[in-house]
Amino acid sequence: MATITAIKQQKRNPQRVNLYLDGEFAFPLAKIVAAWLKVGQELSPEKIEALQGDDAVEKAFQRALNFISYRPRSTAEVRRNLHKHKVPEDVSQQIIDRLKRDGLLDDADFARRWVADRNELHPRGVYLLRMELRQKGIADAIIEQSLTGLDEEELARRAAEKKARQLAALEWQEFRKKCSAFLARKGFGYEIAADACRAVWQEVNELQNSN
Which of these CATH numbers, 3.30.230.10, 1.10.10.10, 3.40.1390.30, 1.20.120.1810, describes 46-105? Predict the structure, then answer.
């Protein structure tokens, strides 16, 4: 058995403490893991091992929190990030389950926000959105749910309107060619792209004629 002789908060990281056993520094712990410890308490080798295991889980959890703090992440992205930092799979699953319980990880919400943000800033077709979400590790059922109700014709038109600012000086054939190629790269099908380009071309010409 080892006796706790001191528990000192780290100066650089107030969320962690240094644990001293029998008068000597033993190992650091997350403050939340060490919350129940007190000076004079005796620790068995098994308890010490359990404390260090709990601390490893807490460190990995804090890493996951930091990872999702910059932008929403999918479950697969969090899992890949933990794997990159050599977090064991069983620990990764504990962390993912905890994030889901806390409402911090939700693939359905992630997919909805991804589609909404993409189409607000850079409209694209269902085909490309589906590919992007699959790359994020989102399940097909969730992907299809997030894409329900999208108006591809309206999205294609909005995308074409943005591109038309660069193509306004071109003749119809060249405009159509470049506009259609642009929309194809954005994941729109041939007919939807063709209709959008034609509609935007007419708008551009009507505006120019009115001036």
Answer: 1.10.10.10
Q: Strand 2-9 to strand 16-21: parallel, antiparallel, or no bridges (unpaired)?
A: antiparallel
CA gap 92, 60 in Å, rounded: 8
Beta bridge partner(s), residue 6: 20
Nearest to 179 by CA among 192, 189, 193: 193
**How far is residue 5's CA from residue 199's CA, in Å, rounded to a whole number?**
78
pLDDT in tens, 162-195: 888 888 788 889 999 999 999 999 999 999 999 9
Which residue matches tokens 């893991």?
33
Instruction: Dig out the tokens for 160 from the structure.
Output: 């074409």
